[in-house]
C-alpha cells in the first residue's frame, strides 16, 4: 500500500524543521565560542595591577588575579631594591623569600618578561644558593635560562651556565650536561672570560673520572656560590670517601684526615655524635616509668667490645625526650672507627649496637657490613 501524499509532506516538513533547528544551535554555539575567544585574546584584557605597596607577603593564588592586589612594573621596580636593602639589615631569609616570591608572582600574572624580571630571578637564585634553598634555586634557575633564550641581557650568562652545569652533572642529567657544555664553549669564545669557568670545568672532569681526592681539592677553589650548588650533593661523595678511609685506616683514623681530605671547615665539625639505643630504629631508649628513667640515667656506662691500638675517649650526653624516654649521645674524641659499643645500665642489662658514624650532619650506618 502506497503512503499518502500528506504523510510524505509531513515527513519532509519535519525533516526541514529538524535541520533548521540543528543549524540554529550550531550557529549559536559557534558565535558563543568566537565571543569567548575574542574576549580572552583581546589586548585590553592583559592584566595591569594597581597596588602600590612596596612590601607584600606571598600568597598562593586560588582564583583569578585581582588588579588591586597586583603591583605594576613601576612599583615592582621600587619594591625590589627596597626589600633587598631591608634584608641586608635584618638578614631574615623567611622575609626576603616571601617578598621575592610575591614579586615573581606579580611579574608572572602580568606577563612581564624583560631585563628587570631577569634581574629579580638572578638575585633570587643567588640568595637561594647562599641559604641552601634548593627548590627556590631550581625554580629561579629555570626562569633565568628561559629569559636568556628569549633575548634578555646576558651579562651574567656564564655565571648561571656554571650553576646549570654543576647541578645537571651532580644530578646525573647527561643530556643537559652536553647541551650546557656546548653553550659554555660558545660563550667562552665570544667573551674570552674563562678563569672561574675553567675551575668549574676541572671540578666536573674530576667528578666524571671519580677522582675524589682531586675533587675535594678543587671544591675549595670553586667560586663561593658554585660551592653552594655542590653543597646540595657533597655529602654523597663524602660518604664514599669515608668508606674508603675506613677500609684503609681500620680500625681507626685521625679526625684530621677527615676534615682536611673532605674539605670541611674547622667550625663544621664540633663532635662526632653517636646515638645508641636498645631496639628502637629512632635510636631512643625507652624506659617503663619515670623512676626507672632516673635509675637508668644514673647508672649509664659505655665500653668497647674490642680493644684497639688507639682507643677513642668517649663522652656521654643524655637528653630527656619525655618522662619515659632518654636519647643517648656518645661522643668519641680524637679518632673515629668501626667497633661495637656496649651500653650498660646495670649488671643485668646490656645493650649493644654497631657504631653509626655521624660527621657534619650525615649518617653512615653499619660500616662493618660494607
From TrEMBL:
Record's GO cellular component terms: nucleus
Q: Where is the composition biased (Basic and acidic residues)?
A: 8-30
**InterPro entries (UniProt xref):** SAC3/GANP/THP3, SAC3/GANP/THP3_conserved
Q: Which Pfam families match?
A: SAC3_GANP
Going by the entry's taxonomy, the superkingdom of the source organism is recorded as Eukaryota
Residue span, SAC3/GANP/THP3 conserved domain: 54-272
Q: Where is this region: Disordered?
A: 1-39
- Give the matching PANTHER family: 80 KDA MCM3-ASSOCIATED PROTEIN, LEUKOCYTE RECEPTOR CLUSTER MEMBER 8
Query: What name is this protein filed under?
Result: SAC3/GANP/THP3 conserved domain-containing protein
